[in-house]
Amino acid sequence: MKEFDIRPQELFDRFLRIVEEDNKTFFRDRSRFRELACPACRSKKIDTAFQKNGFRYSQCIKCGCLYLNPRPPAALYRRYYQNSKTSRFWAEKFYPAVEDKRRRNLYRPKARRVQKLLARVGSLVDIGSGYGTFLEELQRTGTAKKYYGIEPSTHLAECSRKKGFDIFETTVETYARHPKIKFDAAVSLELFEHVVNPFKFMSSVNAILKKNGTLILTTLQADGFDIKLLGPYSKSISPPIHINFFTERSFQHLWRRTGFEIQKVFTPGVLDVDIVRNTSLQYHLSHDPFIEQIIFDETLSKSFQRFLSNHRLSSHIWIVAKKIREISL
């Protein structure tokens, strides 16, 4: 698999341009933005990492968490995701164009991995279930007896219902206040980097899981090779959409605060080197000669990518955690 298989360059660059246009409309007024301590460990010892598209990213000195700071309020984000050209383009143009390739290259392999991690459970919920594509692939593996989704978008929730799934049309934070069902397991794929309040999100996940329930979460991590090397040039860092880049240390802090215990951490990503190569060529970036040799030599780049994955240095991180105690919302 290559980067352009799942995010074609021209289409994705068009998407990012629309993001920048929407920023001028939805996030022009910064008076309601709020400065944050580290959302993982709550430390106030932070540095400015860089600026991008008029937004600032801070980095925690204690745990390495990279995050958008100051941060827009949740209400502004709700309006943005409901009404922006960005959301419409993703739903109507980008995702339909890549769904088949993402199903084959991403969702199907992920479903098999989830099945191995969970074996067999009674009930499973996909938080941020979108079009229901991943639920379809999970169902094929026989991972659970019953599948559910939590999805705030009316359009996407209806897409999933048409595929035969029970969907709660809301956010996990709202559902957690009065959960109709508690689940044996939850999956959350590529959602955490978007979450406005990570502590509230994880506390809500705790509330919807049964005792000893399992969470499988995948997201982008700040210690990953392409994010660390490219910094503001990384297309994965796209304010105001991707706003949280935790590290393994960051997750340890947040999980302890929200009643979880990490069982397993791994980074099976395969695109880091390819992403660095493509971005470096597009923006004419230069690197240390040693790095240049690794990313542009075909044999070395394949070996180096395996090294990154094996040593938890890929930007695509998987966290498997167990709920060990109830916490108050």
Describe the protein in words.
The chain is an alpha/beta fold and about 325 residues long. The protein has a single domain, classed as Vaccinia Virus protein VP39 (Rossmann fold). The chain has helices at about 5, 10-25, 75-85, 85-120, 135-140, 155-160, 170-175, 200-210, 225-230, 250-255, 270-285, 290-295, 300-310, and strands at about 45-50, 55-60, 65-70, 120-125, 145-150, 165-170, 185-190, 210-220, 245, 260-265, 315-325. The strands form 2 sheets. Strands 6-5-4-7-8-11-10 form a 7-stranded mixed sheet, with helices on both faces. α2 packs across α4 (about 85-120). The longest helix has about 35 residues, at about 85-120. The N and C termini lie far apart (about 40 Å).
Write the layout of secondary structure elements.
Elements: H1 3-6, H2 9-26, E1 46-52, E2 55-60, E3 66-68, H3 74-83, H4 85-118, E4 121-127, H5 133-141, E5 144-150, H6 154-162, E6 166-168, H7 172-175, E7 183-189, H8 198-208, E8 209-220, H9 225-230, E9 244-245, H10 248-257, E10 260-266, H11 272-283, H12 289-296, H13 298-310, E11 316-323
Parallel strand pairs: 4-5, 4-7, 5-6, 7-8
Antiparallel strand pairs: 1-2, 2-3, 3-9, 8-11, 10-11
Helix pairs in contact: 2-4, 3-4, 4-5, 12-13
CATH class: Alpha Beta
Largest sheet: 7 strands, mixed
CATH-assigned homologous superfamily: Vaccinia Virus protein VP39
Q: Strand order, biggest sheet?
A: 6-5-4-7-8-11-10
CA-CA gap between termini: 41 Å
**What share of the residues lie within helices?**
40-55%
Mean pLDDT: 96
Order of helices and strands: HHEEEHHEHEHEHEHEHEHEHHHE
Number of domains: 1
CA-atom Rg in angstroms: 19 Å
Say how many strands there are. Answer: 11
